[in-house]
């Protein structure tokens, strides 16, 4: 795919660049799809600007590859997506906000009804129009976020007076512990979902997020809803990551300097030079999604960047707009002013950084700021 650059200014004026590989996203989608039987559909979750990769471009690439069902979190994301993909099926995971059904109908968007109240509101709309307007129903099998209780679902779906012409287009639930395959919760949720939905075989079912796809065919049902794995993230914490990285962040070196042994680096003076150091200051900070927790102190190592294959540990606190890297062991010719350092990407897995930052790679991807030059091109 040729490079597309989304920016208003000359490249040299950006502190860093974010490269997104749409072919890699498509290839990850195909890899997951390849694990499914022919009767299971592979949807794509595009919430939070497609996990930071850009909703419009990612949606277009996946649609072209054959993906027809998309999930976003909120109605505003759905309206944007509808404008770019007239033919897609679009579900809103956060469900039906009060009094908004007309927007869903006008734009042919489907709420994932997450409570009995939402279901009743939608059913009233269907009765008033005499139509079965498509919507999913969410049943809570243990995560205790959204969803009708299994008892509420059973009662509602058995009652024509409640539903009127409405028949759900999908019944779904969400795993709490999919990233930990051995967790009891997975089997318990699977069992409860299977039992709760058994009396309604005419309604397609969906349980699996990315982790659920990798947990195996028992979890697949009629439709799977991967998010993080499409974007190269680590869905199952205990296994090697089978997905391709899709994003790379590179930040520009502003200055390389010497720090005498015993001096401290950065805000709070929490990191002391234990030997004479060379450090490089790069133009990316927590305002660009470089999560502040990944900084280092004398008591705790931080994340790292990568320069020409050399690991450059983060020194001291991450600031809003800059990060200081230890480049003492990096050859001088790689350290020119203006040169790029990889801060996240094929050589610096978001899941590795996330371990230093005490978070998950989802947070890295969705935090990537809007201040970098954004390039759509293959990652090399
Ligand atoms: C975010 C989300 C997904 C996708 O989850 P991943 O772990 O990113 O694959 C699927 N289903 C629901 C209900 C979600 O909220």
From TrEMBL:
GO terms for cellular component: cytosol. Residues 246-377 form the Alanine racemase C-terminal domain. Substrate binds at residues 145, 320. The active site is at 47 (proton acceptor), 267 (proton acceptor). Pathway: Amino-acid biosynthesis; D-alanine biosynthesis; D-alanine from L-alanine: step 1/1. NCBIfam families: alr. This is Alanine racemase. It comes from Roseibium aggregatum.
């Amino acid at each position: 795919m040729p490079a597309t650059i989304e920016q208003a200014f000359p490249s040299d004026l950006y502190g860093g660049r974010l490269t997104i590989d749409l072919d890699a996203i498509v290839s990850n989608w195909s890899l997951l799809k390849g694990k499914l039987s022919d009767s299971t559909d592979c949807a794509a979750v595009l919430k939070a600007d497609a996990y930071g990769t850009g909703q419009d471009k990612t949606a277009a690439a996946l649609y072209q590859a054959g993906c027809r069902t998309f999930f976003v979190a909120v109605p505003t994301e759905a309206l944007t997506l509808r404008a770019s993909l007239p033919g897609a099926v679009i579900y809103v995971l956060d469900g039906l906000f009060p009094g908004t059904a007309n927007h869903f109908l006008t734009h042919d968007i489907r709420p994932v009804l997450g409570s009995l109240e939402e279901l009743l509101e939608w059913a009233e709309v269907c009765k008033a129009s005499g139509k079965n307007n498509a919507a999913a129903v969410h049943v809570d099998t243990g995560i205790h976020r959204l969803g009708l209780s299994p008892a509420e679902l059973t009662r509602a779906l058995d009652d024509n007076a409640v539903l009127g012409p409405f028949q759900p287009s999908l019944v779904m639930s969400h795993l709490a512990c999919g990233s930990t395959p051995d967790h009891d919760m997975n089997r318990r949720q699977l069992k409860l979902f299977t039992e709760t939905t058994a009396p309604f075989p005419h309604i397609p079912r969906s349980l699996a997020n990315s982790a659920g796809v990798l947990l195996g065919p028992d979890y697949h049902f009629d439709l799977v809803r991967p998010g993080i794995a499409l974007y190269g993230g680590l869905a199952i914490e205990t296994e090697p990551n089978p997905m391709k990285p899709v994003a790379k962040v590179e930040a520009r070196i502003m200055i390389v300097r010497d720090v005498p042994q015993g001096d401290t680096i950065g805000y709070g003076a929490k990191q002391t030079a234990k030997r004479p150091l060379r450090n490089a200051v790069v133009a990316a900070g927590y305002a660009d999604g470089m999560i502040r927790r990944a900084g280092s102190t004398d008591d705790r190592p931080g994340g790292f960047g990568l320069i020409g294959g050399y690991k450059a540990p983060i020194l001291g606190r991450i600031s809003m707009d800059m990060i200081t890297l230890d480049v003492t062991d990096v050859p001088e010719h790689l350290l020119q002013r203006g040169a790029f350092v990889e801060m996240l990407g094929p050589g610096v897995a978001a899941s590795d950084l996330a371990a230093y930052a005490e978070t998950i790679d989802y947070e890295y991807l969705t935090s990537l700021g809007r201040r970098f030059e954004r390039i759509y091109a293959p990652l090399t």
